[in-house]
Amino acid sequence: MANQGRLLLSNMQPAIKEIFDISGFSTIFSIFPDTETALKASN
């Protein structure tokens, strides 16, 4: 039995965000500029 969940990423340093963008991970993961925005999106 699998639980459904979400992984939300926030507060990424610019260099890490750039790596995610270049590698295409930005299209796979939900990335938010700050924790508050991520938590609002999770509802």
Structure description:
By secondary structure, the protein is α+β, with helices and mostly antiparallel strands. The protein has one domain (8-41). It has two helices and two strands. The protein has a two-stranded parallel sheet. Helix 1 (14-23) links the parallel strand 1 (8-10) and strand 2. The longest helix is centred in the middle third of the chain and has 10 residues, at 14-23.
Please name the defining characteristics of this protein:
43 residues, alpha+beta, two-stranded parallel sheet
The shape is: flat
Mean pLDDT: 92
Tally of separate helices: 2
Class by alpha and beta content: alpha+beta
Quick structural gist:
It contains 2 helices and 2 strands, in the order E-H-E-H. It is an alpha+beta fold. The chain is flat.
List the helices and strands and how they pair.
Blueprint: E1 8-10, H1 14-23, E2 30-32, H2 35-41
Parallel strand pairs: 1-2
